[in-house]
């Protein structure tokens, strides 16, 4: 189980090695993704709160990166955080998410990226439920729910 200290250490000293890496030119990403997915995954945009595909969805399955298909979150770890975006307590594996300090928009946050393709997913915060206390606040446009 990952804790906030683990996230901080990964961001500061190096993230776990991904099982593989996918790197495409931006033109190829633009061809592969919808306009909204491209804006979020490659441009680090944020979709509007509460008006996104998975905010209020609690269907079973596994959430994958919409860019490369990497498994990111189990639906069982999703919870209602009242943030406006899908929120999760833990990733499926410690090496599927890459962490980076983000001080954009005059805030200090921890960015969550797909560790395989580098796509922007959202942010992780230390205000989630016990036992780990993590809240992965993720853009729906960066996710694809698959029944597994």
Automatic annotation (TrEMBL):
<keyword id="KW-0560">Oxidoreductase</keyword>
<feature type="domain" description="MsrB">
    <location>
        <begin position="26"/>
        <end position="148"/>
    </location>
</feature>
<dbReference type="InterPro" id="IPR028427">
    <property type="entry name" value="Met_Sox_Rdtase_MsrB"/>
</dbReference>
<dbReference type="GO" id="GO:0005737">
    <property type="term" value="C:cytoplasm"/>
</dbReference>
<dbReference type="GO" id="GO:0033743">
    <property type="term" value="F:peptide-methionine (R)-S-oxide reductase activity"/>
</dbReference>
<dbReference type="GO" id="GO:0006979">
    <property type="term" value="P:response to oxidative stress"/>
</dbReference>
<dbReference type="InterPro" id="IPR011057">
    <property type="entry name" value="Mss4-like_sf"/>
</dbReference>
<dbReference type="Pfam" id="PF01641">
    <property type="entry name" value="SelR"/>
</dbReference>
<dbReference type="InterPro" id="IPR002579">
    <property type="entry name" value="Met_Sox_Rdtase_MsrB_dom"/>
</dbReference>
<protein>
    <recommendedName>
        <fullName>peptide-methionine (R)-S-oxide reductase</fullName>
        <ecNumber>1.8.4.12</ecNumber>
    </recommendedName>
</protein>
<dbReference type="GO" id="GO:0030091">
    <property type="term" value="P:protein repair"/>
</dbReference>
């Amino acid at each position: 189980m990952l804790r906030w200290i683990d996230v901080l250490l990964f961001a500061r000293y190096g993230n776990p090695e991904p099982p593989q890496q996918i790197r495409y030119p931006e033109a190829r990403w633009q061809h592969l993704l919808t306009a909204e997915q491209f804006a979020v995954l490659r441009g680090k945009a944020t979709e509007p709160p509460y008006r996104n595909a998975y905010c209020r969805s609690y269907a079973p399955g596994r959430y994958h990166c919409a860019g490369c298909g990497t498994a990111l979150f189990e639906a069982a770890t999703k919870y209602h955080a009242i943030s406006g975006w899908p929120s999760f307590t833990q990733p499926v594996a410690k090496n599927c998410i890459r962490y980076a300090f983000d001080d954009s928009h005059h805030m200090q946050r921890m960015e969550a990226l797909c560790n395989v393709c580098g796509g922007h997913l959202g942010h992780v915060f230390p205000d989630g439920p016990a036992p780990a206390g993590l809240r992965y606040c993720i853009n729906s446009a960066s996710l694809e729910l698959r029944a597994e």
